[in-house]
Amino acid sequence: MKILLLEDEPKVISIIKRGLEGEGYDFAVAMDGYTALKLAGLHSFDLIILDIMVPGINGLEVCGNIRRFDPNVPILILSALNSTEDVVKGLDIHADDYMTKPFKIAELGARMRSLIRRSNRHKIEDNTISLADLKMDLVTMEVTRNNKIISLTSTEFKLLEHLMMNQKRVLPRLDILEAVWGYEFNIGTNVVDVYINYLRKKIDKDFEPKLIHTVVGVGYVMKAAV
């Protein structure tokens, strides 16, 4: 997942990158507003994080300019400006979320995941999610790959849906466990690995490219790249 981060404090940049290194994010960092706006125009990002008080044009101006050419990319403002008026200004200029400094890295990570999930839902067309030649209909629960119907159990379908809704994002095993089986499930279980293996046999074994990839020591990622 590609993230654009507008932040002029090296310490904050380091905290964010180190704190979220296990999430599989690829950060592009801009330390002034003009650079951030240029990067946003040249590249496609899954999420944009903007500080407000930065050199050049400020984060609110960057947000407003980005919205003129990309109304859909999730934008999160991360700023030390914490008054109600500041938050209202940020949201009124069409940021999707506003978080104040100082912040907890766990909360920032959770808000980022929420915005990305919401954005992925908006990308669904006609209740169908696709990746390469794999398609799943969320209404009929029909799954096909290369136009071949694949039979899945309800749990396999739920697992595949979670992976597909978070394409290109590294999903830790605990994240998958909570999303598919619920918080009350025993976190010491290997049920995630077992069901990933079931899915691989059905949607990857006889097809190319492989879509489910293991990230050693972390979890899994759904993507078409080898």
Automatic annotation (TrEMBL):
PANTHER family associated with the record: REGULATOR OF RPOS
Task: Show the CDD domains listed in the entry.
Answer: trans_reg_C
Q: What is this protein called?
A: Two-component system response regulator
Xref: Gene3D superfamilies? 3.40.50.2300, 6.10.250.690, Winged helix-like DNA-binding domain superfamily/Winged helix DNA-binding domain
**SUPFAM superfamilies from the entry?**
CheY-like
- Taxonomic source organism: Indibacter alkaliphilus (strain CCUG 57479 / KCTC 22604 / LW1)
Chain positions with 4-aspartylphosphate modification = D51
Q: What is the top-level taxon of the source organism? A: Bacteria
